[in-house]
Amino acid sequence: MRFRLTPRETSFYDMFAASADNIVTGSRLLMELLGADASAKAEIAERMRAAEHAGDDATHAIFHQLNSSFITPFDREDIYSLASSLDDIMDFMEEAVDLVVLYQVDELPKGVEQQIEVLSRAADLTAEAMPNLRTMDNLTEYWIEVNRLENQADQIHRKLLAQLFNGKYDAMEVLKLKQIVDVLEEAADAFEHVANTVETIAVKES
């Protein structure tokens, strides 16, 4: 039986949980973005930037712990992959908000709220799942549901692209809005990467 509980090991679980909780903060800021006026959007972008920096700090802390640990709770490459994928989610969410402000987008196309709702649900599920890495219990439903949400996000993304290219928007507006919805889709993909990594870890540890 593998010896699992050492003081050095347990800190990884806390750091993964903190990183996921920070992603929930980011998803809430995305929700706030919907319907916000220009000044509110700028303020939300500042808060999102701070959250993204906190996410970077959490990721660097995991990498530092990984590099200084002799014993790890599971494979080093899986720890690296999980931390990197969590960081990617935060990066994509921050990029989407920043683009909305930089491009001075007054109104996001109908359907973006559905993208953000999917991301918010995935963020909640991810934050709920991270503490379960300690025992590897109750994780199957998590990765199944996140994969289902990513499929839903794909469908929403395709509909948004069809809407953007239906002739309603001028060419410059299409370029701006497409970049935003594409980045939100990348965030959904990153949630799936996290779920897939968790599944890989659980299979190895079973």
UniProtKB/TrEMBL annotation:
InterPro entries: PhoU-like_sf (IPR038078), Put_Phosphate_transp_reg (IPR018445), UPF0111_domain (IPR052912). Coiled coil: none annotated. Gene3D superfamilies: Phosphate transport system protein phou homolog 2, domain 2. Belongs to the UPF0111 family. This is DUF47 domain-containing protein.
